Every structure is written in C-alpha cells, then in structure tokens.
Amino acid sequence: MFEKILVANRGEIAVRIMRACRELDIRTVAVYSEVDANSMHVQMADEAICIGPSPSNESYLKRDRIIGAAEIADVDAIHPGYGFLSEDARFAEVCESCNIAFIGPGAEVMNTFGDKQTSRELAARAGVPVPPGSDGMVEDEEVARRTAKEIGYPVMIKAVAGGGGRGMRVAHNEVSLLTGFHTARTEAEKAFGNGGVYIEKFIESPRHIEYQILGDKQGNIIHLGERDCSIQRRNQKLIEETPSPLMANLPDLRKKMGEAALRIAREAGYVNAGTVEFVADDKGNFYFLEVNKRIQVEHPITEEVTGVDLVKEQIAVAMGEPLNLSQEEITFTGHAIECRINAENPYADFTPSPGRVEMYYAPGGNGVRLDSHVYAGYTIPPHYDSMIAKLITVGKDRREAIARMSRALSEYMITGVKTTIPFELSIMRDPNFRRGVYATNFIENMLANRREMVERDA
Description:
The protein is α+β, with helices and mostly antiparallel strands. It has 15 helices and 22 strands.
C-alpha cells in the first residue's frame, strides 16, 4: 500500500484524487503555484509545497520542480490527474527512474499513443476502422493539397501531438486547407512544442463516443461502457452522458465499439485508466480517433452508473494489484449526465471570465454530485483552464437525469463571474437534446439560430 501520494495537479481533479486517497488512508502532498496558495486542494492536503510562479510553464509543467517536491516529501507515487504532465512520457520515465510510481500508463504506452498518426496505425493493426487520411505527417502545402484531393473535402488537419481541440482545423476547399494547414502547425508548435500535423477525412455531424478502459499489470483489460461527448464548443467537450442515446436504436453498436476499444488496448499492452475515442454516425458506422492516456474529466458519470471508483482503481493498479472485476461483472444502472461548469461567457464566443466569486451556492439533493474546488471569496485565476466545477446528475433513466440536471442548474448560484450555467440549462430544455438527437455541431447550430433570431428581431 502506498503511504503518501503527491498530486501533480490543481483544481477539482486534485480535490477528487485527495478524497480517494483519504478514503484509502493514504496521506497526500499538494503542489501549487503562487496564485494557488489559497486553493482548496492546498487546504485539503496533508502537506503542500509551492513549486513556482503562476504561469503553468513555470510551475505545474516543470518536471524538475515536481520531482523535487516529491523527493522532499518522500512520497511513494505521483498522480498527475488530467492535463499538465498527465500524458508526458518523459515525466513518467523520470518518475520511474527516481523510484516513484507514476499513477498512469507507462512511458512506452505514452509514446505509442502520444503521436496520433502512430495511434491510427496501431488501431488499423487491431482491425479497428480509421478515417481515410495521410500516410504520416504532412510536411508541406503540396502534400496537403494532394492528400485532400485524394480523400475528398471536407478534411480535418490535426496536430500529431494535439489535444483539447488545439491544433485542429476543418477545410472545405483548397483556400481553407492552406490557411488551416499553417494555422494548425503554428498553434500546435506553441501548445505542444511539436508542429507536426496530419490530414484525415472530416466526418460531418458525427457523434463523439469514448470508451473507458482499465488495465492491470497482469494483462487483464476491461471497459466500463461508453460516454457520449458530442456536446462540444471549439472541439472541447461541455456536456457528457452515459449511456449514449445513439445506442438506443443501434443495439449492436455498443458491443462492437466496446470490443474495438479492447482490441486497441490489448494491442498496446495498456495499463491503468484511459479512454479510446471514436466518431460514429446514426447508421452504426464508427472510426477510431485517439486514445487519452489518463483519467478523463468526465469519469464521474461512468462511476455513477457502474459503482466503480476509477481513481481508487488507478491507485490499486499502480501498486501492482490485479483488477478485482472481470468484464462480465461490470453492470450499468441508470443514466448519468455531466455539465462542465466553466467561468466563461458562452454568448461572447466562450470568452474566459476570471475573477472573484462573490456568492457561491451549490446544488444538492437526490441524484446530484458536484466536483469542484470553488467557494465564496475564491478568485479564479486567468492562468489556467476555465472549468471550475463538474455537475453530475443520475436518474433511473435519461428523462430523470435530465430533469435533475435542469433542477440542479437552476439551483446553482455563482456571482462575480460569468459562467456556462444558463447556457447549459437552455441545452437541457432544447427539444432535440431531450430527444437525444444531436451531433458535434449541436452548439454551433444552436448559437447560429440564436444569432438569426436576434438579427431578425432587430
């Protein structure tokens, strides 16, 4: 059993990990930047160490400072959460070389899935369909033109080391292709230190479906069902649910996609928690997207319908314990929805809204879970992701989960900053969403319709 774990993250995910550790009677060490000195995760930890100034590239992304803190605190393991160094193969290697357990997949798996083109090749070897695309990275405009012409517009330009919607551009013709090619390369270089891109066929109006996987060091791998992550803005998820409404009319699709996720995981020798992501259409066709090599933001909805604590499972696997559940023993009960509560103005292109939270009232009641690090008087810094909470509701079916989410969003009160709460409430009331009829362009179409109404009224 680990006696002490350093949490190399901040915000709600750091709080979430510390709660699991406390239930396991494991002491925790927080690391924090100067601006996070009064953050909730610092207050909850048994020990806390400042690792630098506010910008993440001077604190949470500094491998040496986090390792230094781990050695000072004499910890057994590091949990990276999501974001920051959670998918950094070099960081995983450094942890291992310092005899500190890294709670996540090893460096070899990180490298395999760290490059999206390599991931596509592995999926193809596993017999999983991938969208038509370029053979490796696209280095210049001429190759980009030729590739797009061969597979047909529209196409998606993607950063090989990308994530979170960055380094991605859709092109519908040659003009937008060339503009998007250079923009994606520049954005990817700034965000990931790797400007490499590849091109694949853009699947229009798809569903974004991901499968939660979990593997141990003994070679056992299971999945814990799907999550529908199609409600997105700028290729970043905003609302997730499980099970996916898409599966209601396609009973064989869930099994096929689950088996595909396991084939990919086995091909890579995957250990610990991760997700295999796909796009799917309403006819039952699906294609591999990528593997996320960490715990996901939206993991709570899977926990709520399966009863499996994924963070505790991560820790157990990292300690060398075998999974205590087989695929046949995984059961799914009810329906769960998650709304990511962001400090943003959704009607101004989701512009971040950092600042001091004046009033904070959290919703509660039956079937409501809130994962957050925010409190009245807390100042949301401008240096990090704008997500400040995850609101999760559970019901015996989708209708009840939506009803509870609508009620919980109506109760949730945050003043001093703008949030996505009113916007997400409008989605819960949208007839198409309530029928489960939506795709990845849902928010884009919703905002376009709103602009048309405003212009017509004017």
